[in-house]
Write a structure and sequence with these properties.
Length: 323
Amino acid sequence: MAVGLMSQATGLRSIAVGESAKAGDIDAVAFGRGSEANALSSTAVGDRAKANGTQAVALASAAEANGYQAVAVGTRAVAEETNSVALGVESSSTALNGLAAGTRARVRKSGGTALGAGAAAFEEKSAALGYKAEARQQNSVALGTDSVADTAAGVAGHDFATGAASTETGKAWVSTLGAVSVGSEQNSRQITNVAAGKEDTDAVNVAQVKSLARQTQSSLAAAESNHQTQIAALRNEAKVRMDKLEERADSGSAAAIAVGSLGQAYQPGQGAVSVASGIWRGKSGYAVGISKVSASGKWLVKGSAVGAAKGGAGGGASVTYLW
């Protein structure tokens, strides 16, 4: 059925309504001046609307749905590929399974999603949600007004232990998909109301960071306390040892004084036994000595034994030739 000046309905059960409207395939429907429904079961409604894909739908002035089951709704909206959807003035989805919703929203690669005026999904399976949000890497997600997701998969995270990018290869350290962005180089956002993460790949909230800080401070305090206790013990032990060493040194000095106080034989054939004691800085020592001069008066033989009040004993002997 064709209604309108120069309208054409050439397909079986097709309908063309409006000046120069064209319904060119089976069950095609074209409503509006210059509208065209050129494929099986396609629908074009609006001034110069065009539905060129099988079961495609184009609604609004100059809307175009060119892919299989593509949907274009809005003035100059364009849905080019199979199952692509463009909703909004001048929105465009030019990729397989793409969804662009919002004034001038754009999808350029398969599986992309752009929701919001000016939002754009430029790579496969990327998603841009928000006014002028842009997803520029495969599988990336941009959330919020003016957000930009431009970090690709495969980026290694920072390892605080080394101060550099991690050399680990697991998904907890190296991303397997594009990044999720809630801002851009010029703009940043806080992510609020985040529950504490559990798994290695979960997000961490401030409460967990504070808990780690408290635990670290507690551990450091305990380590410092233990360190100070060990130092104090070492100092005490060193002092005790030094005190003992000092006492022994004083006793040794007293014993040396005692040895120096021993008498000896001087006349030929004379023998002598001597006992002496000494005191140094409150510590005492003692000595016993024996000496003998030969009958010729040429040889002097001496021997001594010493002891200290704080323990320890010793002795000495000498032979002296006289002339």
